[in-house]
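Lecture 7 notes: from sequence to structure.

We start with a single chain of 367 residues. Read the sequence below before looking at the structure.
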Amino acid sequence: MKKSILKGNPIDTYIRIIAFTILLVASYSIVKPFLLIIIWSALVAVALYPFYIKVINLFKGKKKGLVTSVFIIILLAIIVVPTINLTSSVVSSSLEFKENFEAGTVVVPPPTEKVKEWPLIGEKTFEFWTEANQSIENVLRDHKEQLKNILGKAFSSFTGLMGAVFLALFSLIFAGIFMLSAESGYKTSVQFANRLMDGKGEEFIKMITNTIRSVVKGILLVAIIQSILAYIGFALIGLPAAGIFALFVLILAIIQIPALLVMIPAIAIVFSTHDTMPAIIFTIYSIFVALSDNFLKPMLLGKGLQTPMLVILIGALGGMMFMGMLGLFIGPVILAIAHQLYTAWVSENVIPSGTNNNTDDIEKISE
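Now the structure, written as tokens:
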């Protein structure tokens, strides 16, 4: 029989515990700078693995390393190309504005009378727009501090977005390594979970993977679909800075804020610059896009899960408020595990239907 390492002299046991604790603390300190990338890579690997397996099966499992490398390179290109386009567009637009401003050739087109009809902000917007049309230099001088704060926040948001992009790139690279050795990683995870949950490790690992994939489909995928549909509408109607508006739709959809907050200004701009009929059609389309998450989420968020959709949604929102973007995935996993443990604990002592055990006691309690 195998002897436990905790049996024997208590002093030896304490020394082992102290040595093991020191080892854990030292290991954490070493891994800490890479911990965020590792967690993100694991989440990305879990989310992409079903699609990755389909790609591998297309090649019948041959040259798995090469196929994995090409798969990751394609995913990197999907992120890098739009990022380069967005960055170059922002930089070129900024430089062009700077050159035109220094040359005194910046011209703001005059507002139409329809701007006054905008609810709540119509009159003030019309006045500010007219002032900018007459003299952009005076507007910049009079609102110097406000513009400085707005530009500072915009720059911070842009640098934060670029940081997130670089994190996504590194995470994809590590995710490819994780997917390449997914079978051994899955077995190790199940063995570890079995030690914690007394033989229920595989059930909990499957629940965790399903929860992560459900969040990816129900939140991220829905956000991407909404932003793509929004960009199509913005581009077709000729909305200025259509890509920026679509990016705002994507961000708001991810953090679970209604996309109508972006659609309403876009609709107002279209009504002030286009004829009535195209503007009405654009409004109907924009409202449809903004509300599309109401039927997409029920279809994708709770599909294939035992955990109720409400628990997953609360976990995503609460986790994101508590831990940022990473909490969008960690929160639902934690709540799903808690819900599973609660369900198992409650149903553990339930009397099966058709039995008469402790009937007298139940009748006494009811009296």
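DSSP finds 14 helices and no strands in the chain. Keep this in mind for problem set 3.
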